[in-house]
Amino acid sequence: MDIRNTENKNIKITLLALGCSKNLVDCENMSTELKMAGYNVINDVPESDIVVINTCGFIESAKKEAIDNILAVADYKVPNGKVKKIIVSGCLSQRYPEDILKELPEVDAVLGTAHYGDIVDVVAKLSNELDKESEKINLTTGVGGYKHLVKKREISTEAYAWLKIGEGCLNRCSFCAIPLIRGPFVSRPLEDIVEEAKIIASRGIKELVLAAQDTTNYGIELYKERSLTKLLRSLSEIDGIELIRVMYGYMDGITPDLIEEMANNPKVAHYLDIPIQHGSNKILKAMHRRDTAELITSRLEMIRKAMPDCIIRTTVMVGFPGETEEDFIELKENLRKWKFDRLGCFIFSPEEGTVAYDMPDQVDEQTKQRRYDEIYELQKQISAEQSKKRLGTVTRVNICSVSDDGIFYVGRSYGEAPEVDPVIYVASQKEELNIGDFVDVKIADCSDDYDMTAVTIDGE
User: Fold this and answer.
1) Burial level of 268, CB count in 10 A (0-12/13-18/19+)?
2) Distance from C-alpha of 207 to C-alpha of 438, rounded to nearest angstrom
3) What residue spans define the domains of the chain?
4) Are 401 and 419 spatial neighbours (Cβ–Cβ below 8 Å)?
5) pLDDT averaged per 10 residues in sequence order, the chain, 460 residues
6) Quick check: 367 and 319 in contact, CB under 8 A?
7) Quick one: how far is CA 203 from the chain centroid?
8) What count of other Cβ atoms lies within 10 Å of the Cβ of residue 36?
9) What does the pLDDT read at residue 291?
10) Among 88, 207, 92, 214, residue whose Cα is nearest residue 158
């Protein structure tokens, strides 16, 4: 039964996106679908009739954030506030649908990762029963899929746009629940991605940020070969696009042809986000990673030889089962050698359904925290050293916002990815800059632990 043609404009809906950029894209697509169906999508939980919480369920801290947000929204539910229905979507719903409906009775519906496209039908059903208790909805069969993506979706990030190129993951890391939640890796057809990118460019957005669980696996199951190089070439031919950023690659997928394309294509950022997870071969093997310390070393040398200015970000994990003090020391020694410009660190948390969940030799929490703190202290020094190399250089910056004090513009160059990296505070020598403008600046100060300060150069 088609229930999309009801009078919906008086129903106010707020969507909350938690977790990663891929979740944000899913939320933008749901918002677009709801607006197309006539619903009044706002950004105000207390004034909403229905609230949709798109959750992450990757690690323990993400699950806690999701539950905290559900409970916070529940405080606004009738009879305490105006909210009448709560929908929980995304990864947490996929993993624990029955638990959510049982332990959080304020929740009226759960949608799994294969059911974002059902949001309008679910909202319509709940809207017909806004002022009374309704039957709980559980749509969590199947996993993953990109069929819900709307090419003309709204973009909530004004100066850039995330562009999802695939869903799920082919890797089977022993600590990771993503394949259980999102399914195996599925590439979007190249033509589909390019069509959406052209629509984004037509709106004046000049920076594309490519996202998938493993972007370097793009095309491997669809075209029977790694096809990220071909995709980058196709996207760079779009008028209006000035910068294309690759996120979430794997070291064994950083192939010579990809490096060559990045080095020679002026629209592709000399930037890579490559989560290596560890520096000890013993732990890498236990994690079911394909990389070795030797491979990581050789690929980094290859990248930096072709692109000496390349900014490289990584992620590591401490406290994995069986990680001895010797393994941890080896990780630190390799990080000193590899000199990643940016680094994020996770503390291992056992996730149900993964191989590592009940592995022997679990590391105690105090040791995990100490190692986490040591990694960040080490990386703080490395990042400062790497940043100083950029002092006095000229770089092109995408203006994203204005600082809270109104003194500086806030921007990012090719070397700063949205949300996870530092920013560049820009003092403009011209009267006004606009959000989304690309301007040339000179790095004037790198003394801050992470952020930098720059000034626009003559002519900008």
Assistant:
1) buried
2) 10
3) 12-139, 161-388, 394-456
4) no
5) 60 91 90 94 94 83 85 90 92 90 93 92 90 87 82 90 92 88 91 96 96 94 96 97 95 95 97 96 96 96 97 97 98 98 94 91 96 96 91 93 89 93 88 88 86 79
6) yes
7) 22
8) 12
9) 92
10) 207
Kindly state which CATH superfamily the domain 12-139 is placed in.
Answer: Methylthiotransferase, N-terminal domain (3.40.50.12160)
Q: Cα torsion at 434, 43, 245, 146 (round to 10°)?
A: -140
Give SS3 for 412: strand
Q: Is the dihedral of CA 374, 378, 381, 384 positive or negative?
A: negative
Rounded Cα–Cα distance for residues 64 and 318 (Å)? 20
Let me know if domain 161-388 sits in CATH 3.80.30.20. yes
Neighbours of 399 (CB within 10 A): 22
The whole-angstrom separation of Cα 94 and Cα 139 is 9
Q: Is the dihedral of CA 202, 207, 213, 216 positive or negative?
A: positive
Give the length of the chain: 460
Residue 115 identity: H
Cα separation, 408 vs 414, in Å, equals 19
Q: Which residue has the tokens 């790497």?
A: 386
Rounded Cα distance between 5 and 193, Å, is: 29
CATH top-level class for 394-456?
mainly beta
Please, where are the H alpha helices in 106-264? 119-127, 178-182, 190-202, 228-236, 256-264
Looking at the DSSP bridge assignments, the partners of residue 395 are 441
* Cα within 13 Å of Cα(15), Cβ side: 26
Q: Please report the pLDDT score of residue 460 as a whole number.
A: 45
Single-letter code of the amino acid located at 283:
I
Burial category of 444 from C-beta neighbours within 10 Å (exposed 0-12, middle 13-18, buried 19 and up): middle
pTM of the model: 0.91
Phi and psi angles of residue 421, each rounded to the nearest 5 degrees, phi first: -110, 165
The secondary structure element, H or E, covering residue 365 is helix 365-388
Closest CA to 326 of 383, 389, 382, 280: 280
How far apart CA 360 and CA 341 sit, in angstroms, is 34
Confirm if 324 and 362 have CB atoms less than 8 A apart.
no
